[in-house]
Amino acid sequence: MAKEDRTDPICGMSGHIKAHGKYFCSESCIRKYEKKEGMKKNLYCAHCVDSSGGGPKRWYQERLYQVLMILVALFLLDQGLTFYGITSLNMFWHAFFEYTALIWWALLLGFLLGGVIDYLVPREYISKFLSKGEKKTIGWSVILGFLMTACSHGILAIGMELYRKGASVPSVVSFLMASPWANLPVTLLLFSFFGLNAFLIIVSAIVIAIITGIIFQGLDRLGWIERSKHTAHVSEEFSVRKDMKQRWKKYRKNPNTKEVVRGVADGSWSLTKMILWWIIRGMILAAAANAFITPEIFMTYMGPTLIGLFITLIVATVIEVCSEGSAPLSFEIFRQTGALGNSFTFLMAGVATDYTEIGLIATNIGRRAALMLPIVTVPQILVLGYLFNLLI
Fold this sequence. Notes:
Layout: E1 17-19, E2 22-24, H1 27-36, H2 63-83, H3 90-120, H4 123-130, H5 135-147, H6 152-164, H7 169-182, H8 184-194, H9 197-222, H10 240-253, H11 257-292, H12 295-301, H13 306-319, H14 323-337, H15 340-352, H16 355-364, H17 367-391
Antiparallel strand pairs: 1-2
């Protein structure tokens, strides 16, 4: 018996909400499908079982709400036990809320930009620049990553939205590798900490992003990683500039600001539900590591040796939270140990081996692509980290 196709007809993701005889990943995609097919607006009822016998998940079945409920229950339990003097997770909660204070703005920006891309940027635009198997496509991805202002977690939302809009897997990987450490705000932050040594970190991050993208293009040609299901066919004659002018003229004749705002908000919320629960899980792990592993242990075992380099790699895998938050800690490693290579490894490996990022890639792109990310990037990071320790 053939397996039932649950591919969302709008975004190509795996669908779990059954409506109109098809499966969708979110209500936002259902609305887009209704609009595309010329159906009556809001025909689908989010709280009803449809005529085909399937129905949507209730709100409490959504992963985001489940993770939030677990977090709230853990907090209330801890407060209750603390009242009776039994136990306390004060250090854990301090770290968790500290991380939240560091990254909330970046997440908000990332989800907002993702919503803008979702509603206002046609799939053809992304496919035109970021879907081809050419080396210049990787260049465009890295440039786009450099221009972004969100941190490593905020950038995940934008990267996933680019993928949904038609960017190839190699382009998305290059974008994710370049943006946290080569973007403009973090560039200034790193120079404030490391001085001219920051130049080596930033250039190396860009080089790794380019090399990784090119390798992923080769893996894509060999069929060793999943290929994007969202790429739109775009003719060579298609002009983004002309299309933008036409759309702007059309909007000026019949402006509908409320519809645009609603569309961006719907896209942002859909992206939030898809990604935020992963980020919260990653923050829980990071807060636990911060609370129960002392800084003295970091500094003792993360010296400028091969063993120190590998320990740094392991630590970065566990506690990477945000580029802005990791930069000060990486500088503290450099200040205490004098090992620039370890600081570089801490920064780059935190992105390449981040539990949240790999989980999102595995869920939304594919397990092979997620597996290949650390396999391709970690050796590059370790080699450069080792050279930095030798030369500086």
